[in-house]
Design goal:
The protein has ten helices and eleven strands. The protein is an alpha/beta fold. It has two domains: 2-95, Ribosomal protein L30/S12 (60s Ribosomal Protein L30, Chain: A); 110-251, Alpha/beta knot (3-Layer(aba) Sandwich), CATH 3.40.1280. The strands form two sheets. Strands 8-7-6-10-9-11 form a six-stranded parallel β-sheet, with helices on both faces. A five-stranded mixed β-sheet has the order 1-4-3-5-2, sandwiched between helices. Helix 7 (149-155) links the parallel strand 7 (136-139) and strand 8 (164-166). Helix 6 runs parallel beside helix 7 (149-155) and helix 6 (119-131) packs parallel to helix 10 (236-251). The termini are far apart.
């Protein structure tokens, strides 16, 4: 079916998914672009609606080879539902994974975030965690939405490769600590030497402006990245990426 009107119910739904409230209400999120859509499908994500720009035959053939339902739409419709200035010809409403924190966390490295608010930063952290073999990402209260369009673009599909949980951070950190995990927090008052890691670890990264809360810091071993130049601090996602790399390397026997 070729969709030509912005009054179509599917079009109205996809447009609404740019807002967090609509994503929470429907349990769906918006993704765009051939790479992200097919990565989501390959990871087992369920697409409730897919719109493809009329005439994109290679994309249409690929969807048909997967047995996936879709509708075609005029270019102006794709532009109407898109969250980007230059739409890539395909958009989908995808079922958001269950983000409920588990009773027992997977073994390995957990990346926990305390009130991280920039979606680009969050997406970068999720992508780095995925690349470094982390077991999960845990979002505390006040974090931005991991399934917003901007965050998903920055994560480049990694949000579908590892579980992303949402929960009361302090409560979950206490539970993780009781499991015997080492909790390491990026903090300006921390030591410039990483603690010995004898088992599974949790990295905690704080808010871009204020860092982690005092309550969270009190549960963790504090670590400050050594600075050898004149800059006094790093962007939150950059600092998180360095810390994830260093601790992952130790967990995997590389340092």
């Amino acid at each position: 079916m070729l969709i030509t009107s912005t009054k179509n119910d599917t079009v109205k739904l996809l447009r609404a998914l740019k807002d967090r409230a609509a994503r929470r209400e429907t349990g769906l999120h918006l993704i765009e672009g051939e790479r992200l859509v097919f990565d989501a499908l390959a990871s087992g994500a369920k697409a409730e609606h897919i719109l493809v720009e009329d005439g994109r035959e290679p994309v249409i053939r690929k969807l048909e080879s997967l047995g996936v339902d879709y509708n075609t739409a005029k270019r102006q419709i794709i532009e109407a539902v898109s969250d980007t200035k230059t739409p890539q010809g395909i958009a989908a409403a995808v079922k958001t994974p269950d983000m409920t924190a588990p009773k027992t966390y997977p073994r390995g490295l957990i990346v926990a975030l305390d009130r991280l608010q920039d979606p680009g930063n969050l997406g970068t952290v999720i992508r780095t965690a995925d690349a470094m073999g982390a077991a999960a990402v845990l979002l505390g209260e006040g974090c931005t939405d991991a399934f917003s369009p901007k965050c998903l673009r920055a994560a480049m599909g990694s949000a579908y490769h590892l579980p992303v949980y949402e929960a009361e951070l302090t409560k979950e950190l206490i539970k993780l600590k009781q499991e015997g995990r080492t909790l390491i927090c990026g903090h300006l008052d921390g030591a410039e030497r990483l603690a010995d890691i004898t088992g599974d670890a949790v990295i905690v990264i704080g808010n871009e402006g204020s860092g982690v809360s005092d309550e969270v810091a009190g549960l963790c071993t504090l670590y400050r990245l050594p600075m050898y130049g004149r800059a006094e601090s790093l962007n939150a996602s950059v600092a998180a990426s360095i810390l994830i790399y260093e601790i992952s390397k130790r967990i995997h026997g590389g340092g």
